[in-house]
TrEMBL record, chains A, B:
Main subcellular location: cytoplasm
Known pathway: Amino-acid biosynthesis; L-histidine biosynthesis; L-histidine from 5-phospho-alpha-D-ribose 1-diphosphate: step 3/9
Record text on subunit structure and interactions: Homodimer.
Family: Belongs to the PRA-CH family.
Amino-acid positions noted as binding Zn(2+) in the UniProt annotation, renumbered to this chain: C82, C98, C105
Cofactor comment text: Binds 1 Mg(2+) ion per subunit.
Protein name per its UniProtKB record: Phosphoribosyl-AMP cyclohydrolase
Residues binding Mg(2+), per UniProt: D81, D83, D85
Length: 116, 116
């Protein structure tokens, strides 16, 4: 099978440019690591290879997480949300999830701190 | 102050319709509860009231989580990701986070199950 299962494809609610949001969460700790985008092919490749595979809007290409950095994502579980526009991936992240070298993409910029 | 802090506003990378993605995560357990959208006003209201406030693309209006259902979100922390297009909210969710009555919006549809 070279294409996304039609039974899955028909449940997706895509942006005008054909994408759904994908949240990667570390298995065990529950940390939210990053958010990226997937088109049907990226999702198909993620489901069949268990390697986190996304679509870059800026570059217009697919990318496999860690392919250049070595910071791969092994995908344990993929869930689709109630309205079909967001995926949740439960992963084992190798090394830093963020291209900046941070552990997660949400480490650097706190807009609102917890109440003291 | 009635508007989003310009120092924050200039760090946001919005969709063509002016929105950023917002992931709500339960404090303590780390569960990912839901993903929704925010414009500048929704973010400003969230930061100043600590009540999860979003923008509905389909209805074209702001909504405060739990305003009709009672399933409110108290926001402890807000973080912006490395490329400025996604927010992570650490919240205390009252009751079900999903409008279907499920605990999270990711409970119902498993596309890929963990390896057995």
């Amino acid at each position: 099978m070279n294409e996304l299962d039609p039974a899955v494809a028909e449940r997706l609610k895509r942006t005008p440019d054909g994408l759904v949001a994908a949240i990667a969460q570390q298995r065990g700790t529950g940390e939210v690591l990053m958010m990226a985008w997937m088109d049907d092919e990226a999702l198909h490749r993620t489901l069949t290879t268990r390697k986190g595979t996304y679509y870059s809007r800026s570059r217009g290409t697919h990318w496999v997480k860690g392919e250049t950095s070595g910071h791969t994502q092994h995908v344990h579980e993929v869930r689709l949300d109630c309205d079909g526009d967001t995926l949740l991936l439960v992963v084992d992240q190798e090394g830093a999830a963020c291209h900046t070298g941070d552990h997660t993409c949400f480490d650097a910029d706190v807009l609102l701190a917890p109440e003291s």
